[in-house]
Amino acid sequence: MLPTLVDAAPAGDGWIHEVKLGGYCTQTVIDDAYVLAYYQNGRD
């Protein structure tokens, strides 16, 4: 879960977006029925 700076998001919907605020890294999974946020240590 190490971010890479790029100029634009990849085309299509098969990519992951990671937001880092104040030292906390999360990975968010959005599905039709739920939203989960995973932290860098793998906990949700």
Topology of this protein?
Elements: E1 18-21, E2 24-30, E3 35-39
Describe the structure.
The chain has 44 residues and is an all-beta fold. It has a domain at 18-44. The chain has no helices and three strands. The protein has strands spanning 18-21, 24-30, 35-39. It has a three-stranded antiparallel sheet with strand order 1-2-3, with no helix packed on it. The chain starts with 17 loop residues before the first strand and ends in a 5-residue tail after the last strand.
Summary of the model, kept short:
By secondary structure, the chain is mostly beta strands. The chain contains no helices and 3 strands. It has a domain at 18-44.
Features:
three-stranded antiparallel beta sheet, 0% helix, mainly beta, ligase, 44 residues, ATP-dependent DNA ligase, flat, ligase activity
Number of helices: 0
Topology as H/E string? Answer: EEE
Low-confidence parts lasting 5 or more residues at pLDDT below 50? none
Distance between the termini: 14 Å
Q: Could you tell me the radius of gyration in angstroms?
A: 11 Å
Q: Which bin fits the share of residues in helices? A: under 10%
Structural class: mainly beta
Keywords: Ligase
Organism: Sphingomonas xinjiangensis
GO molecular function: ligase activity
Protein name: ATP-dependent DNA ligase
